[in-house]
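Hey, resending since the last one bounced:
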Amino acid sequence: MTVASAVLSFDNPVFRTFALAASLMLLKLMLQPWMTVARMTKVKAGFRSPEDAKKSPLNPEPKPGQLEANEYVERSRRMNLNDLESIPGFLAAGFLFVLVHPPLLLAQILIWTYVAARAAHFAAYVTAQLHDVRAFCWTWSSLAVIAMAGYVLVKAF
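The structure tokens again:
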């Protein structure tokens, strides 16, 4: 087994940790739009494109206002946009972090801090907590990614 394949192996506990966390974050990223769809379906509103308000099998009785912003739907859209701003950076930084062989405990702390902070951010956003609460959660996830990227920079030079 080459060094590269050993690093990117489930025998490497750092890679295993990252793979588990990355899979959870990818599921979050891909399932959030389904929450938006479920909310649109529930309230029959929050549609975005003009053709969405036309009569169809999924919209048999279009009503005026279906294209207007609906806070219940928009909240889910904002959560999805926040995921799109955060999760790709974690995936990239985490992958590079694995490649520089960090200590397992450091990797576990940074990676699971990110996941826990994103879970807390989701809970805060879905329950409409104050910006201060959401920002607190976001800050921890951001600092974890910054620490991973910084560690990679230090190790790369």
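Residues 7 and 15 are 7 Å apart (CA to CA).

Sorry for the duplicate.
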